[in-house]
């Protein structure tokens, strides 16, 4: 064993310096140079040390730099975009909560970027109207809490993949462009926007628009008065009616007006707006609580904790202080999502604990805390390949995930030799348990509509992961029924997703993706491997049988893959259906249809297997 580790260390030492091109390291150092005060906050950014896993805020996937998460570092100065352009794998940039100011940097030169987070800075001035035209991959735009002004660029409409748009708490003015995308998260609240809210944005709800005094129409309570429009049409009549002289006069008029306005602006800066901005800022103050601001620092939570004021709370901050004096190797929990409340390591220690099981990557416990919240704590021992800062950045990214079919982690605890992951406890337990565990009691609920609902939910969760982690080789990687939790109404929630880049190379084989034929026969996992795993789950749900694939030695359970292939080739598919479902004869055809989808997912040649997208499409098409 020791010899194996030693070998891996040697391989890592030999390979790492060559894996990253020297020019990327240099580019990052140039970027650092462009900041004015990075000496302490980016002290880990030093030459001759590989950025991946060593430099704070540099996120890598397989030794390729994919993200820069430079939040909360007090940085200011310039952002050297030309340096960033030398990092071709870069997809995510976060400068959340720093002190950058001045006009919008030319991020639009980074054509492949998927997410830009600039929340909580001092950027100001208008965003060029064509800014988004070159950014076709962009999915997440967080520009909230800055001082951007001018119109919201229409070019946002060119972003086919846009999912999250946050422009709240700025000084944007003019009308809101009518955005055609279906966004999962959107706000333009607390700006100086005006006019009627475009019809296709109405569904986002009033909170997305409040704090804009001149905005009207649904979903706000303020009905639109007559003050919009007419001028445009009239102008055009003039032009066609009076010929070239009138055009010239108009052009002169416009120029004169522009010159006049710009002079006026210079001389009396923003005089006209002073009243609006004063009242705005009071609105701003009230509503800041409602605005979802990503990335919260630890300190904020410990503040919250002590605010609770019970002796309980005091004890917590005490224990935190005590532990942090021990050289930081044994810090408190770090909350990454506080929607279920805030707690500390002390609360976990005092909780009634129960062993839930031992999965491939570590063991899991249930902890019922005194505040009524029950959580699952997973101990991961095979996750020490990345440094604390990178780990923290990843966990915070997980903590921001909001999807009905994804289990968002609440907190983590970092120690070099092991990590703890804390998620909410679901009383129903995992799909594995509900299907094969103590079936006597809850069995009646597992009728066909419920099972289809579960499959659809899993597909939606996968769809989310395949968008969110689309550049990962295995966006889930450990997809199996024991990693799918069920809510009270049988809504499935995926867990243990997207761990692949975090797990030690020596331990990846304990992930379920590595137990499939993709790896055992072809020695190669890919995004299609998750599809295979999804297929196993579908078959597990329809047959009600425990797949032998889940046992590493193949003993116990039924080889669902072989069974399904045989039954289909011999045209006796009906035998596969769980006997418990068979009395629902009206739905038999649907069950067989889902069975076919499952079978397409376990096609043994990954090349011929359907893609995740196709699998999701076919599942979504199914009616109950
Ligand atoms: C913002 O960053 C500073 C450090 O530069 C930190 O002290 C502060 O807590 C951060 N604020 C939030 C809301 O995270």
UniProtKB/TrEMBL annotation:
Keywords: Leucine-rich repeat, Membrane, Repeat, Signal, Transmembrane, Transmembrane helix
Pfam families xrefs: LRR_1, LRRNT_2, Pkinase
Segments of this protein annotated with the region Disordered: 294-331
Keyword Membrane attributed: yes
Signal peptide limits: 1-21
The protein's name in its UniProt record: Protein kinase domain-containing protein
Basic and acidic residues: bias regions: 300-321
Subcellular compartments: Membrane
GO MF annotations in UniProt: ATP binding; protein kinase activity
InterPro entries in UniProt: Kinase-like_dom_sf, Leu-rich_rpt, LRR_dom_sf, LRR_N_plant-typ, PRK1-6/SRF4-like, Prot_kinase_dom
Transmembrane segments: 237-261
Organism: Lupinus albus
Residue ranges constituting the Protein kinase domain according to the UniProt record: 350-624
Source organism, top-level taxon: Eukaryota
Major localization class: membrane
Cellular component per GO, a single term: membrane
